[in-house]
Amino acid sequence: MPGRLRHFSSCVFAIVAVSLAMTVTWAASERWEFDRIIGRVERQYGDLEAVRLRLLAWESLLRDSAGLDERQQLRAVNNFFNLQLRFGDDQTLWRQADYWATPVEALRIGAADCEDYAIAKYLSLRQLGVPSSKLRITYVKAVRLNQPHMVLTYYERPDAMPLVLDNLVGGILPASQRSDLVPVYAFNGEGLWLPGARGDKQVGDSKRLSRWQDLLKKMHAEGFPAGSGF
Predict the structure, then answer these.
(1) What is the pTM of this model?
(2) How many Cβ atoms sit within 10 Å of the Cβ of residue 224?
């Protein structure tokens, strides 16, 4: 997220105060039909072999990871997107200051900003059946880079130390070993949290996040089923 540090202090207020967006719901339990999804991509952008191969690799990841335990699924999904996608900032990739790409958009161009990595990992793990209560897309300040950043965090139990899935670090580490990250807010398909001395405090739901709702609408247009909540 280079170039956006000047907006950092106002991000929490802007996210919490954003007006209620149209509700878009999602069914993580419905099987994704990749033939349909790939067909829509090819009709819109042409029959590009590299894009098809990346999308088929994503389908294979989900199929092959379905029988693994959650820790193994975390590693498989984290490694897949960290290896498949090169980093690029939103201005370079999308000619916008802040753009949340769907996993299909990121895989189509083979590149992603930090929030795109976190979103793709979150949606993939939800499709594999990991409960949303265990997953949060977490907006942080990357201290060493002195800039905003986004990661995915996994809570094995509500009171557990979260594990951090990050495109900057290959391995999955507990948050206690990521002193370079300072949490600002977190969200998933059900809620919005702010950090506090006594633990994170839920302050709303993700329906207040207009960019998240827009992203789910884009996925529905790409051929993903709409349903009952990601």
Answers:
(1) 0.86
(2) 24
